[in-house]
Amino acid sequence: MKFGGTSIADGKKIRHVAQLLISYKEAGNQVVAITSALGGVTDGLLTNAAEASQKGKVSQVKEFMTDLAKKHYDAISDAIDNERIADEVIETIDIRIDELEKALIGICYLGELTPRSIDYISSYGERLAVPIISGSIRSLGTDSKPFTGGEAGISTTDDYGNARPLQKSYAQIRRTVGPLVENSIPVVTGFIAEDENGIITTLGRGGSDFTASLVGAAIQADEIWLWKEVHGIMTTDPKIVPEASTISQISYIEAMELSYFGAKVLHPRAIEPAIIHGIPVRVKNTFDTQFPGTLIVADQNCSEEVAKAVTLIRKVAAINICGAGMVGAIGTAAKIFTTLANAGVNIIMISQSSSEANMSLIIEQSHLKRAVKALEHAFNEGVVGEVAYDEDVCVVAVVGAGMDGSPGVAGKIFGALGKGKINVIMISQGSSQHNISFVVKEEDAEEAVKVLHREFGLGKKNGCN
Ligand code: ADP
Ligand code: ASP
Ligand code: MG
After folding, report:
1. Are strands 435-441 and 426-429 parallel, antiparallel or unpaired?
2. Is the distance from the beta carbon of residue 4 to the nearest atom of ligand 1 less than 6 Å?
3. Could you say which of 53, 79, 145, 174 would form a disulfide bridge with 136 (CB–CB 3.0 to 4.6 Å)?
4. pTM for this predicted structure
């Protein structure tokens, strides 16, 4: 069972989570808990690390650390009744707060922030949370042991910020966490792990979903449950469309597409370990525990739903590479992709017109400068005439396995957008036919989501009944 940041935002919520875990354990289940950082902490760590490296203000670091320590002390006092356990947890928290403060002050002096140090700093969110949750469980009378991802056996590559778990992690997790589940509730930090040299790595933002799936697969859990503050995977982000409804059942592949195409509710790789081991994943609401939420399974036995959900990727940029010389010039696409790969640019979407005179790409906004620079350098003379770009675009996708072989879906999408006077900049359909995605200006994006959610009638009924 994984709990996100909102589920453990403060001491009262942590106590609720501890009680919930214990209730499942006492009902005869074996449970391992995975947790994120307390709500907002990871963002705070990242912002302050960046500011420390840019401004070098030690006083600002100290102020941040005082607030961070207070947030965690307050949580301890609300989540843990037992004085002895509270003192033990405070001792652990004090050591970590002290280490973190030293690291941030170091960054102030160095004026430098590497991907490796970003992972180290951001790991403190989860490393401060886990002792409190484990302490809260113990204070309610059930045995519990806290683990960092590394201690639990999660080994990764050293791709800081987006590390990949190594195969040996599964056996290691089974050895460390496995034996404890009989009589205890182990609590493991989500999001963070270690490379083979014992250096802290992270699995990317939102990575605790991925940790839960890894640990669940390693211990061969019957089910992996992701507890959030929403009622499951919904037909779209309820922050954009409040009348979005919960999808009661969805296939692994659809859930993966949804997360690839921006539904923040799930980390894009969270489903992979569950798929390999065929473990059902449930997404449930921490604050409405009786609500069934969403069940993610291999089979999709209710595919009459053409569209299941509408998603939105923000903070992307479009690059348009054009030139008459590109027509019939073999190897241009290869050169474009190699150039971008060498510059470390992740390509989200590709579209080439059949005239071959231009190619459009969607990339992360943060990669735009280096992408344009690399392309201009690589094509400074020859086939490419111009590298144009647009920073303020979004990708909208309609996802659903039912659109496979179902004619008229694209017509419905673009007809509705036309009626809504929304201009489409670029279109792409994966050959999986499980999604149709397109690009619009940022200012049109939420309206596009609303129009399509309405067009496919997604707010009225659940996706699978
Ligand atoms: P956690 O921290 O518990 O992992 P997240 O904040 O990462 O939770 O994910 C939940 C958020 O995802 C919700 O607050 C919601 O705004 C957003 N979201 C985006 N798309 C969807 C969707 N299709 N279904 C549910 N939530 C969504
Ligand atoms: N705390 C991490 C983040 O905010 C991981 C997670 O919440 O899943 O990205
Ligand atoms: Mg998340």
Report:
1. antiparallel
2. yes
3. 79
4. 0.93
